[in-house]
Amino acid sequence: MPASQLEQVQRQLASHIRNPEQVAGPDGLEQRRLKIYRELFYKNIENFISNGFPVLRSLYADEQWHVLVRGFMVSHHCHSPYFLEISQEFLLYLQQQYQLKPSDPTYMLELAHYEWVELALDVASEDLDELVYAADGDLLAGLPMVSPLAWSLAYQYPVHKIGVNFQPQQAGEQATYLIVYRNRDDGVGFMEANSVTARLLELLAEPEARSGRQVLEQIAAEMQHPNPDIVIDGGLQILQQLHSLDIILGTH
Q1: Can you give the residue range of the structural domain that contains 185?
Q2: Three-state secondary structure string covering the chain
Q3: Would 114 be classed as within a structural domain?
Q4: pLDDT tens per residue, the chain (252 residues)?
Q5: What is the CATH number of the domain that holds 82?
Q6: Are residues 100 and 4 in the same domain?
């Protein structure tokens, strides 16, 4: 078979596997074998997506879920050939191509992002042991170092609580702040935070090097707090808590 003809057959086979209801398989291929290919590819992709988004999966009936996954296979052209990155590709599909239906939960995109973050941190290649810092440095006088495996996030919905038995119908009056992180033992966890803690991490992550005290003084000024020392004392306790969780590793 000439190369051009073989490529044409391969493309038609791939299109058929993605969308068997609309695209016929190549001529001459046994239907039994085509079915094996279709089921193999679909089950592999669906399994990765279900495992990557278990809470989202639990909120859908089987038929609705399979329509969603099939839509991803038909419409989305993945930029990565790696199975481990299917979850990221699925998230991109939801964010950029998928049109929310009345039957979809309003928090669908936020929940999907939160579940993807957990997986992304679990497989991230960064090694905390390779970073240089003083683990027992002074968190006020020194320059606190935020872990590259700690992500500070803000959502309209309490995504970390959503499940079959808790499905909020509208966004919260205040944002939900979460810090998702991977510690030295490679365990992925999260902690609920507030706007002050989120702002603290945001300032510490800026390129400009500032001590923990300087950052807390700025936060006190932004809050227009009448007694900055109270903010600094409370901020030190937050820094110590973040340090105990490996969200802050130490000081530069």
Answers
A1: 128-252
A2: CCHHHHHHHHHHHHHHHHCCCCCCCCCCCCHHHHHHHHHHHHHHHHHHHHHHCHHHHHCCCHHHHHHHHHHHHHHCCCCCCCHHHHHHHHHHHHHHCCCCCCCCCCCHHHHHHHHHHHHHHHHCCCCHHHCCCECCCCCCCCCEEECCCEEEEEECCCHHHCECCECCCCCCCCCEEEEEEECCCCCEEEEEECHHHHHHHHHHCCCCCCCHHHHHHHHHHHHCCCCHHHHHHHHHHHHHHHHHCCCEEEEC
A3: no
A4: 455 766 776 676 666 667 677 666 666 666 777 777 778 888 888 999 999 999 999 999 999 999 999 999 888 888 776 777 899 999 999 999 999 999 999 999 999 999 999 999 999 999 998 888 888 899 999 999 999 999 999 999 999 999 999 999 899 899 999 999 999 999 999 999 999 999 999 999 998 889 999 999 999 999 999 999 999 999 999 999 999 999 999 998
A5: 1.10.150
A6: yes
Tokens at 146, concatenated: 């935020």
